[in-house]
Amino acid sequence: MTSPNPEFELLVDGLSVDQRLELGHYLLSGDAALTSVARVNRVLSRDASDESDPVVAEVVEAVCTLVPTWLPEPDGGWLAHHHLGATLLAARLYRRKDSPGGMAEFGMEGGGYVSGNWPDVAMMLGLSNYAVGRVG
Predict the structure, then answer these.
(1) Residues 23-40 pLDDT 10s
(2) Is 93 helix (H, G, I), strand (E, B) or coil?
């Protein structure tokens, strides 16, 4: 698999699946991690210290390893808006597990759907229409 981030590809080139998983755990363990289980739990209005849900941990790990394939880490490290964007992305991906078809709830007014288009996350991460233009 290739990513638009050549630095990430150089980092993981030739690693086995187990080594990539170990790298993911390493990326999650540092203070520089894009998000954490505690941050995602706070956004989900859950006890921040509760790390018993393996699905939250899996989503957080996936986000922390996926976002660097989309954009390179800035020289000074990840900025506050990157952390917030990654946390929002992880929380929304976690919420999608209960609504794979997009329907979150059904009431008297009809169905409530989870949007598949998240411009606020794209804005926080500097993706899509919010990416900084580059020449060359």
Answers:
(1) 655 555 555 688 888 899
(2) helix
